[in-house]
Design brief:
6-stranded mixed sheet; metal ion binding; alpha/beta; Uracil-DNA Glycosylase, subunit E; 43% helix; 13 helices; 300 residues
Amino acid sequence: MRHLEALLDFYLASGVDASLGEDVVDWFQLSEVQAKARQQSATPQAAAQPVAAPGQNVSQQVRQVSPQNQSPSQPRPTQAAPAVGAGTRSPTDHGAIPDQAVISTARELASSTGSLADLRACLEAFDGCNLKRTAKSLVFADGNPDARVMLIGEAPGRDEDLQGKPFVGRSGQLLDRMLTAIGLDRSRVYIANTVPWRPPGNRTPTPQETEICRPFIQRQIELVNPDVVVFLGAASAKTLLGVQDGIRKMRGRWMTYPVAGRQVAALATYHPAYLLRSPLEKRLSWRDFLSVKSKLSELG
């Protein structure tokens, strides 16, 4: 049994936490299809046609590698990809390179939105973050946009990706209980993440991915305009506050976050997912949530 548990832990650590499809795929045969597609791109006059893998259409298998299905702005498979930072590809291309041009475009798009509905529509149309290609859903937000308290995590997990809402898995259930303990619920708070798409295998978002998404969460905070911001975990606090302290040093200490020309009270606390792994730390998070309740009373 311990061997099986160790194997499952290995799979989870490697990002294998969900089935990628219901149909069996012969990856060896699929490799042959891709090899033939590359040959065709090198010799366009070739008459040979790729062989479809069992249960799949040939056009589906070679869609990403066939030169006939690529836009002029995308390099052919036989060409070297442009270097990161070269800025040679449009920020809206699929597989966008996270260079400064993409980040600048994200800032411009986010700042141009005038409502949360506009911001959501902007994110749904935005293709500058590669995480969108592997995620099932845009996980925009949950709760009341007029709430006085806004809670911000790092990125969605598997359950959140499936349902399209933040904090709906086990960590979300714990968060709900923590909110109830101080007289709050999802109808009285607003919940979002710094990154709105699930990274593959629940890995940590890269600095480039976080930087691309940062203008959108910043604009989201401005549009909600809360009285209190609670950062769930160090990642969201570091991204938005620009601090480098670890969560143990940071948590429980009131800071400020600039929103629409005013300084909003901000507090970092442990992420609920961490509390599930380290239940003894719940007592510290309880103190933090009591502090949030006191701050709301203090602010009136």
